[in-house]
Amino acid sequence: MLAVERLSHWFVNGGEETPVLHNIHFTVEKGEIIALLGSSGSGKSTLLNLMAGLMKPSKGSILINGHPIEKMTENQLAEFRRTQIGFIFQAYELIPHLTVRENVELPLVFQGIKAKLRKEKALFLLAKVGIGEKSELFPSQLSGGQQQRVSIARSLITEPAIVFADEPTGNLDTKTEKEIIDLIIELNSTLSITFVIVTHELEVAKRTRRVIQLRDGFLVEDASWAGEPE
Ligand SMILES: Nc1ncnc2c1ncn2[C@@H]1O[C@H](COP(=O)(O)OP(=O)(O)OP(=O)(O)O)[C@@H](O)[C@H]1O
């Protein structure tokens, strides 16, 4: 499903190279949920941007469903991101003047899907994430946790191959954080959606069955366990 193969990345500024990722290698199977854990500056955002096709790696390869994304043209990449990848952001990134339902429908508007089908899918997903009754409200009328639920529904509406959640609970209190991670874990198990949760919080990472840890751009741990996560 996702294969990161011998990936290294460095930034070049004014002729000077800053190495950021070193020989990162791992795979994620369909239906898995993993945490990508690392402290600030460890290279998580860079790796996420590479996996989402927002930048090309200096060395190595990233395959999603067998497609090496660094070999795609800009147009292929844009289409790929629109259809195969879902994003959940720390700050929700909802559009304030659209209703909750319209926000969730938006990725399908860009795909030219008809209004009736868009609405059906959005309402189904809003019910799935537990805020079916909020569909006609605006984001500002919702709590942070509810807004993150909207953003989760939006990330799923194109039925992507993989969803990247970038610090999805970074703006939430501990109780709401737990509820949102519970929801992501439930969606992973009931809908078999593949999730990569990027976090600097060990508490969040420990909730998944597999943790990949980055330190100073190196993959220092790839640990899975079969029992119940804590
Ligand atoms: N465009 C750039 N040019 C040079 N160095 C960069 C660039 N972008 C990031 N870096 C460096 O790469 C390293 C990793 O940064 P990155 O943002 O990937 O880390 P992170 O783990 O996501 O941190 P945070 O949790 O704070 O977002 C840092 O040392 C950063 O200074």
UniProtKB/TrEMBL annotation:
GO terms for cellular component: membrane protein complex; plasma membrane. It comes from Paenibacillus foliorum. SUPFAM superfamilies: P-loop containing nucleoside triphosphate hydrolases (SSF52540). Residues 2-230 form the ABC transporter domain. The keyword ATP-binding applies. GO terms for molecular function: ATP binding; ATP hydrolysis activity; transmembrane transporter activity. PANTHER family: IMPORT ATP-BINDING PROTEIN (PTHR24220). Gene3D superfamilies: P-loop containing nucleotide triphosphate hydrolases. This is ATP-binding cassette domain-containing protein. Pfam families: ABC_tran (PF00005). Keywords: ATP-binding, Nucleotide-binding, Transport. The keyword GTP-binding does not apply.
